[in-house]
Amino acid sequence: MRKKIITTINDLKEKNKTTSETTAIVNKNKISYITKNAKEQLKINQNNIIFKRENEEFIHIINFTEGKTIPTNYHLKENDLDIEININTKSIKIEEDRIIINYKVIESDNDYEFIIEMR
User: What is the greatest pairwise CA distance in the chain?
Assistant: First the structure.
């Protein structure tokens, strides 16, 4: 089913907000969409959310698992270089038309709030 979605990433440390609006394909456990910068996909499992972001330059896969710090793989295509980034998922809230993920990037000590709203 196609739905309009609005994604928001709040950088809580720098107090920056990035919002994007697009159309997504929404299934029971999967949301796929394209922003102006990348193809993005969320796979919603019982205990975690796998978020994949890909464009011409990189592939970044994040495993959001509440209460856990998990290393993610940030792959730079041009250099064929993998960079490990540790993400601590503070909370995941899944509602019928909204998903909210609060997380911290350990290396930069930045807290973020990722919101996906479906209409």
Answer: 40
What is the Cβ-side half-sphere exposure of residue 50, based on CA atoms within 13 angstroms? 9
Average pLDDT over residues 50-56: 97
Does residue 56 come out as left (phi exceeding 0), alpha (psi in the -120 to 50 range) or beta?
alpha
pLDDT at 88: 98
In angstroms and rounded to an integer, the radius of gyration of the C-alpha atoms of the chain is: 14
Average pLDDT, the chain: 95
Is residue 44 within 8 A of residue 34, CB to CB? The reply is no
14: exposed, middle or buried (Cβ count in 10 Å: 0-12, 13-18, 19+) = exposed
Distance in angstroms (rounded) separating the CA atoms of residues 93 and 115: 10
Beta bridge partner(s), residue 104: 88, 111
Q: How confident is the model at residue 28 (pLDDT cuts 50, 70, 90)?
A: confident
